[in-house]
Amino acid sequence: MAVAATKKTDLSDAPATGNTLRFANDPTGFTREQELHAYREMLFIRRFEEKAGQLYGMGLIGGFCHLYIGQEAVVVGVQMSMKDGDQVITGYRDHGHMLATGMEARGVMAELTGRRSGYSHGKGGSMHMFSKEKHFYGGHGIVGAQVSLGTGLGFANRYRDNGNVSIAYFGDGASNQGQVYESFNMAELWRLPVVYVIENNRYAMGTSVTRSSALTDFSKRGSSFNIPGAKVDGMDVRAVKAASDMALEHARSGKGPFLLEMETYRYRGHSMSDPAKYRSKDELEQMRNEHDPIEQVKHRLIEKKWASEEELKKMDADVRSIVNDAADFATHDPEPDAAELYTDILK
Amino acid sequence: MSVDILMPALSPTMEQGKLSKWLKKEGDAIKSGDVIAEIETDKATMEVEAVDEGILAKILVADGTDNVAVNTRIGVIAAEGEDASAAASAAAPADSKPAVSKSAEPTSAESKPEPKPAEAKAPDSYDASGEIPAGTEMVKMTVREALRDAMAEEMRRDDDVFVMGEEVAEYQGAYKVTQGLLQEFGARRVIDTPITEHGFAGIGVGAAMAGLRPIVEFMTFNFAMQAIDQIINSAAKTLYMSGGQLGCPMVFRGPNGAAARVAAQHSQCYAAWYSQIPGLKVVMPHTAADAKGLLKAAIRDPNPIIFLENEILYGQTFDVPKLDDFVLPIGKAKVARVGKDVTLVTFGIGMTYALKAAEALAGEGIEAEVIDLRTIRPMDMATVIKSVRKTHRCVAIEEGFPQSGVTAEIAMRIMEEAFDYLDAPVARVTGKDVPMPYAANLEKLALPNVGEVVAAAKAVCYR
How many CB contacts within 8 angstroms connect chain A with chain B? Predict the structure, then answer.
């Protein structure tokens, strides 16, 4: 692993607490297979989200719809470190997380369109999907709630001593909710196997981290509970994977929770109806042009001659056809039966 | 193949907008993610990003056009290698609907009748008299001991059951309800939490989602307001939101309502609050036997249960059947005293007023039937209705606030289901519409009392 405690020197202006590592520009890199896998997974999420945005624009997806475009390297990199049985839980920007755990594009898209073959039979929507089979525990619409719930999944792992780790994703916005720290406290107190992944995309809806957070180095948010943290270039899937390897190992070996701050960026607005006036075009363009997680991998694949433009185009076409199939399915699947209104309230 | 660009909806309520500016012109190459146009809605200017790749073959709606309806074709993209002009001309006429249409909405109330919930059909009323087999040996026990025994028995039976909360382990319970559990089951299963209701409630719900069966003790339900988001938004709604995949088999329990002289922040009854929520069951026992049998049922139930206890009742002694496994059904009321003149309906500590009032009324020649609901949700209306059909009069009693209270619900349900049987409007006796005062005399005034129940019963009997 390319990570060493000596990387502490990379810390810029943050006060020294002695427990923050920095993961960026991982020199060991990926194998060809890993690069190709990451490329395809990220592309899949991006194309899926673009299609979801399009269907939203056509009025086929209702309500709130929060797209993951730009942040793909985070879930794909973390997923590459996970073992079967490890759980994932996240907030409302959840489509990428579901696809990364292997949930079917058709089922996710049909839930977005509110149809009967959706993961929640059309009763959950964009923010509320689950898959017990893929160990995906939602999909939560209340900002920060998933942190306590994810800690509870870790509690169950510990109680059963099953060797699994719970991954709780949340954003820079949720990081200011009180229950996050209540959970941190108990997770460290009881040495629960939980990895907290803060996806810092710089904006909580329209409020930038500098306007909302007294301490903007989120990797240190666990320090008063003794939870080690690391800052990660969340646009580089290799850095994400390297950091997750370490964090998961830490949690799995009984040392308690670990916190990863993923420095990432969402290209789209907070939700579909957000014009994103709170940030400059230049900022967005710079992230897109210089840090795009997918382009980075593509560049390496071409440069190392691990794949030709043609092969990558073919991969894109494959991914598009899966996404188009999902969209087609999700727009032709019937709505739930009226009787479903009264099902699944109690067991 | 050419692809249409449609006027997008950018919010759930947008129906039309102004196509203010094209950022690409005909013949430009487009790749997904490119901003191709700007749209103005009543709220904001938004960018339209391309999803498909190719050449912008044709612009169908010009810059500056107002009131462009959502889903109108505004342009055509030709695929790479395709003749752009052919694609533009081959494209379908501008008024054609997209291939995928929005699902049909019900056209009228008649065409799509509201399905009725199954519980609207009143089942045959339940008879609680057979719950304890004749000849069963009874032992004297406090409510506190009964609750402890229920937890201990279920923890012996199922390793997935554990109890967590403030002071439940080493301190032996703030009200000694968990006394002895740490000694028998150890620190893995009897877990002291920090003072952090929101956090540990969420951890409990997460553990339940993973299949464990937590008993989350709140030192009092007043403190559960810190955690109510996790109880309602996470525990109660997840089964529904997951299409039945993920439930929360757990119990939230602790003392609820007024104790004595603890003032406004420690004296509220939450029965009405939780009873409003689909996805929860709400249990509020009065006797030690019911406390034991219902808590055992609650721990085994696959749903999230709110189990409301009462500090004043903890120390009261009742007969409890000496049975190896005494489990009572949730959602069934009990006729605690048989009468023919008026029905008194209540639950939990409300039973103490009702039973004393019934005794007093008997002295005046009025035979009151007393119904202990035991479960607030689902509410056993069949038992209540059966009684009201007999007595034609009803008084509902609770310690909680009057507005939108449980008694308000009882009165409404009687009106819906037994209006023609009533000889008088349903009356209610509740806590007063004030925060609980500290002063002894004021506290007494704020709570219901036996005299008020007697007066209400006489009023509905026109006596």
Answer: 214
- Structural domains for chain A: 11-333 (3.40.50.970)
DSSP B315: T
Q: What is the ipTM of this complex?
A: 0.93
Chain B neighbours among A 196-225 (CB < 8 Å)?
none
Would you say the C-alpha torsion B347, B348, B350, B353 has a positive or negative sign?
Answer: positive
Q: Is the pLDDT of residue A345 over 60?
A: yes
> Per-residue pLDDT tens for B236-285?
999 999 999 999 999 999 999 999 999 999 999 999 999 999 999 999 99
The predicted model scores a pTM of 0.89
- Find the angle CA(A241)-CA(A246)-CA(A247) to the nearest 5 degrees: 95
Contacts of B176 (CB under 8 A, 6+ apart): B144
Pick from A50, A130, A342: CB nearest B117: A342
Nearest to A186 among B44, B194, B210 (CB): B194
CB A20 within 8 A of CB A3: no
Q: Are B338 and B283 in contact (CB under 8 A)?
A: no
* Cα–Cα dist A199/A173, whole Å: 9
Active site residue B198: no
Buried b (16+ CB within 10 A) or exposed e, B301-338: bebbbbbbbbbebbeeebebeeeeebbbebbbbbbbbe
Cα B339 from chain centroid (whole Å): 33
